[in-house]
C-alpha cells in the first residue's frame, strides 16, 4: 500500500508537469526477488495516463554475485507465466499445473538468460546438479560475475564459497557463483525475436529466508500474500519463525478498534491456504516493517526487534 501511495503521488506530480512517457521504450524492473505479476501490472496501470506502454515494462534478475543474469527485454514476447503446485514446491519439487487448479501458484519468468551467462540449478546441501523437476539454488557462471566482497574481516573462506565454488559431481572443473536464491529453468513455449524458444529463469525466493516448518520448506512471500488478502485494513505483512512458531506481523492501516478482528482472519487464512498454525500475531502501525533501499523486507531485522520487544505493537495474540 505504501508503495502504491508513493507511485500515485509521483504520477500526479509528473502529470502536473506535463511529462509524457510515450517515448520510453524500455523500463526494466531489476529485482533480487520473485517477479510479481500484479506489481508489474499495477505499475503499468498507474503510469498509463502518462503514455507509458505496458510493453515497455519488463523484468530482470540480478544478485550480489552477478548483477545481470537474465533480462526480459521489450523485443521478445510477453513474459510467460507458469502455475506450479504449492504442495510439491514445499518438497522442493516443481510440478506444473493448469491455471486455477487448487493450491496453484503463478510464477512469472524473470527473463531470458543473457548471452555468455550459464545457469545451473543445484542442491544447496549436496552441491550436486538437479533435474528439471526440482527446485534448487541458482548458480551462475559468467565473465562478469563479481570476484568477491570488500571486507575488513578477512573471511576468505566465505567469499570462496559464494564466488568461486564447484559442483560436487558432474561438471566439477567450472567455477560457479552462488546467488542464494531458489528457482528453476524452463524452456518456454513462446518464441523470441529470432523465432526460437528460449530458456526462462523462474525465481521462487531467497534461500536464507525460507521457513522450515514440519519438515517442509515455505516461502515467506506466499504466506504474506495470503495474509494481505485477509482484510482491506492490512497494509503490509511479514512472517518469520521463533522457536518453531510462525510469527505474523501485520501493519494496520485502519482504526485500532479493528486490530482484534484481524487476528482470527489472519490465523484462518494461513491455516486454510498453507495448513500452518500461526503461533503469534502482531498488529503494528504502518511503517514498522523495515524495508531496505531496494524495497526488500528486512524480516530478520524485524525478528530481532520482536525478540527485543521494540515493535511497540497495537495488539499481540499468542496461540502457544
What's the layout of helices and strands?
Layout: H1 2-16, E1 27-31, H2 37-46, E2 57-61, E3 70-71, E4 81-85, H3 86-89, E5 104-108, E6 111-113, E7 118-122, E8 136-141, H4 156-163, E9 177-191, E10 197-206, E11 211-213, E12 216-218, H5 220-229, E13 234-242, E14 245-252, H6 259-274, E15 278-284, H7 299-307, E16 315-318
Parallel strand pairs: 1-2, 14-15
Antiparallel strand pairs: 2-3, 3-6, 4-5, 6-10, 7-8, 8-9, 9-10, 11-12, 13-14, 15-16
Structure write-up:
This protein has 320 residues and is an alpha+beta fold. 22% of the residues lie in helices and 30% in strands. The protein has seven helices and 16 strands. The strands form four sheets. It has an eight-stranded mixed β-sheet. The longest helix is centred in the C-terminal third of the chain and has 16 residues, at 259-274. It is globular and about 60 Å long. It starts with a helix and ends with a strand. The mean pLDDT is 83.
Quick tags:
about 325 residues; 16 strands; AMP-bd_C; AMP-binding enzyme C-terminal domain-containing protein
Query: Shape, please?
Result: globular
Major sheet strand order: 1-2-3-6-10-9-8-7
Question: What letter string, H or E per element, gives the SSE order?
Answer: HEHEEEHEEEEHEEEEHEEHEHE
Residue-averaged pLDDT, rounded? 83
Low-confidence stretches are none
Organism: Alosa alosa (allis shad)
Protein name: AMP-binding enzyme C-terminal domain-containing protein
InterPro entries: AMP-bd_C (IPR025110), AMP-bd_C_sf (IPR045851), ANL_N_sf (IPR042099)
Family: Belongs to the DIP2 family.
Amino acid at each position: 500500500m505504501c508503495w502504491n501511495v508513493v507511485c500515485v503521488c509521483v504520477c500526479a506530480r509528473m502529470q502536473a508537469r506535463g511529462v509524457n512517457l510515450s517515448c520510453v521504450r524500455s523500463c526494466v524492473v531489476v529485482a533480487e526477488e520473485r517477479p510479481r505479476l500484479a506489481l508489474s501490472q499495477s505499475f503499468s496501470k498507474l503510469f498509463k495516463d502518462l503514455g507509458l506502454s505496458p510493453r515497455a515494462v519488463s523484468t530482470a534478475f540480478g544478485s550480489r554475485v552477478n548483477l545481470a543474469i537474465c533480462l526480459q527485454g521489450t523485443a521478445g514476447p510477453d513474459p510467460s507465466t507458469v502455475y506450479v503446485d504449492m504442495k510439491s514446491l514445499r518438497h522442493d519439487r516443481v510440478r506444473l499445473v493448469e491455471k486455477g487448479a487448487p493450491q496453484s501458484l503463478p510464477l512469472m519468468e524473470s527473463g531470458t538468460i543473457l548471452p555468455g551467462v550459464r545457469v545451473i540449478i543445484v542442491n544447496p546441501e549436496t552441491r550436486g546438479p538437479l533435474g528439471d523437476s526440482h527446485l534448487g539454488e541458482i548458480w551462475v557462471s559468467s565473465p562478469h560475475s563479481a570476484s568477491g566482497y570488500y571486507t575488513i574481516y578477512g573471511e576468505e573462506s566465505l567469499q570462496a564459497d559464494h564466488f568461486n565454488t564447484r559442483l560436487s559431481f558432474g561438471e566439477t572443473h567450472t567455477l560457479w557463483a552462488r546467488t542464494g536464491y531458489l528457482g528453476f529453468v524452463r524452456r518456454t513455449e513462446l518464441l523470441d525475436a529470432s523465432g526460437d524458444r528460449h530458456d526462462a529463469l523462474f525465481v521462487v525466493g531467497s534461500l536464507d529466508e525460507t521457513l522450515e516448518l514440519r519438515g517442509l520448506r515455505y516461502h515467506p512471500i506466499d504466506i504474506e500474500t495470503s495474509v494481505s488478502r485477509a482484510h482491506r485494513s492490512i497494509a503490509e505483512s511479514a512472517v518469520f519463525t521463533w522457536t518453531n512458531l510462525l510469527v505474523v506481523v501485520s501493519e494496520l492501516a485502519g482504526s485500532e478498534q479493528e486490530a482484534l478482528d484481524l487476528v482470527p482472519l489472519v490465523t484462518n487464512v494461513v491455516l486454510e491456504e498453507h495448513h500452518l498454525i500461526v503461533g503469534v500475531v502482531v498488529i503494528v502501525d504502518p511503517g514498522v516493517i523495515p524495508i531496505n533501499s531496494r524495497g526488500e523486507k528486512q524480516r530478520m531485522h524485524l525478528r530481532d526487534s520482536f525478540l527485543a520487544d521494540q515493535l511497540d505493537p497495537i495488539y499481540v495474540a499468542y496461540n502457544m
